[in-house]
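User: Show me a protein chain along with its predicted structure.
Assistant: Here is one chain, sequence first, then C-alpha cells.
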Amino acid sequence: MPTITPFLWFDRQAEEAAKFYTSIFKNSKIGRILRYGEEAAKKSGRPAESVLTIEFELEGQKFVALNGGPEFKFNESVSFVVNCDTQEEVDYYWKRLIADGGEESQCGWLKDKFGLSWQITPTVLIDMLHDEDSERSERVMNAMLQMQKIEIKKLKDAYTVK
C-alpha cells in the first residue's frame, strides 16, 4: 500500500525545522538524516556533510525536510491542520508555532518562523459549521471571521444564541 509523505523544501533550515516541530508535538521523533557527499556538495554549493534531507514524524505522520536552497518559499496555498479538542490544545499549539518570529493570521491560521502555514482548528468548530441549522452555522462562521486564534467559548456563545 503506498504512503504519502509531505516533502518540505527549506533553504538551509531543514534540521532546525525538524527539531522545532518535534519539540512541539508530543508524539514525534527525528528519523534518518542524509548528508551531502563530496560530489553533491560541489554541484549544490553546500558544505560536504551538511544535511541534505532529514526525516521526522509528528503524531504518526511522516515528513521529509530538504535543504534545497532559496529558490522556493512556502505560501498559504498549502497548510497543515492541527485538530484540537480543547482550548488548552489550541493555545498550546498556537503559542509554540508562532514562537520566535511566526505570524498570526485570521480564522485560526498562522505562519511559523520558517513561513510554513498551519491551521489550529478546534474540532467543535467544524461540527458547528456543519450544523443543519444554517442560522447557527452562519453565526459561528461570523464569529470565527472576527478571530485570529480561535476561541471556543466565543464560538459556543454564537452557536447557542436564541
